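Protein chain data
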Amino acid sequence: MNFSKFRKSSGFRAAIVGAALLLPACSFTEEALWPSLTGEDPAGAPAQAQDGQAVEQQQAQAPAPVAVGQPVLGNSNFQPQGVTPGTSTGTFVGKKVIELRAELKRLQASISQHNGGLQQLRAGIVQDSQRYHGTVAAINTRLQVGTTPGNPILVQQFNNARGDLERINNNTGELNRLATAVSSDSTMSAFLSESTRAAFSVSGAVDEDHKQLAILEDEVNRTVVLIERLLKELAEDVRRQTNYVATERSNLNLLSAGIKGGEIFGASLANQAIVSAAGNSIFQGPARAQDTSDRRPLVVIRFDRPDIPYQQALYAAVSRVLERRPDAVFDLVAVAPSVGGPARVALNSNKAQRFAEGVLRSLIDMGLPPSRVAMSGKTSAQSKSNEVHLYLR
C-alpha cells in the first residue's frame, strides 16, 4: 500500500521496506516486518529527525482501491412448462387424476409468481449495485486527486451510496423471505409426488387412467426438480449478498473516515482479518495487554505538535501485517515522558492516554476489530514528547 507524501517531522517517522513483503510466507516473522514504520532507518541506523518538522515518507501516489464488484447472481428463469390436459374417464382414479392435476396447476402458478418476484429482485439488486459502485468510485477518485476534509459533496455522495447499499440489503431480506415461501411449494410438490405414485395402486382404474397418471407423474417430477433448483439458487444468492453487504459496510466505514480526513485509504481492515474455515473468528475474546519492554514497535507516532497526519501510514502498516497474518493481534501503548515532577508525569500520562484512544478510534474506523487491540500505558526516560507505539504480537 503506497500512501501520500507528508512534510518532514520528528513528530512521525515512517519508512516502508518493500523487501519485507517479498519474503516467503514460511519465513515471515516479526523481525521480517521491522522496521516497517518505526523511528529507525531501514538499514539499521537510527533515524535523526528535527523537532517541529513533518515526516518525509518515500512513496508513490496511492492508487484508488479496486472496488469489490457485485457478486454474481443466479440467472436461471424458473418458469414451469405447464400441465397437460386430460379427459375424464368417470372412474374413481380418473377423478383423483383430475384433483391432482388441479393441485399441480396451482403449484406451478405459485412457482411462476415466485419466479417473477425473484427476477424483479435480481434486477433491483443489479441496478442498486451499479449505482452504488459508481458512487463509491467517484468518491475514491476525488479522494485520490485530493480534496478538503469533510467535503460536503462527498458527504452527499456517501449518503447516496449508503442508501443504495441498504436497498441491496433489504432486497436480500426479500430473497430470504422468498426462499421461505418456495420451501412451502417444495413441501407441496413432495405431497403431490407421493400422491401420484400412490394412485397407481388404487384398484378400479382403466388403462387411460394409468396413461394420464404417467404423464402427470413426469410433470410432477419435473416440477420437483425445478423447485429444488430454485431453492438452491436462492440460497446461493442470499449467502453471497449477505457476505457482500457485510463487506461493503466495512468498506463504507473506512470510506467515511477517508472523507472526514480528505484522504484515501484502501479496503477495510475488517475484510483482511479473515475468519477461519470453521466460520469462527481466528481471534476470540478481547486482547489483554502484554509486556512490550523487549519488543520493537511496528509504528511510532510522536505527538510533538497538533494534528499529526498518521492515519495513512498507520493504515498501510496494519494492512500489510494483515495480508500476511490475518490473525494478528496488536498492543497499543501510550508512552509519556518520565521527566519532571510527579504532577508533570501524571499530566503527560493523561495526554498520552488520550492520544492512544484517538489512535484506537482510527483503527476501529479502518475496520480493525477492537478485540484485536490491547491498550496499556507506560513512561519512558527516552521519550521527549508524548508517543503512541503499536506492537505486533
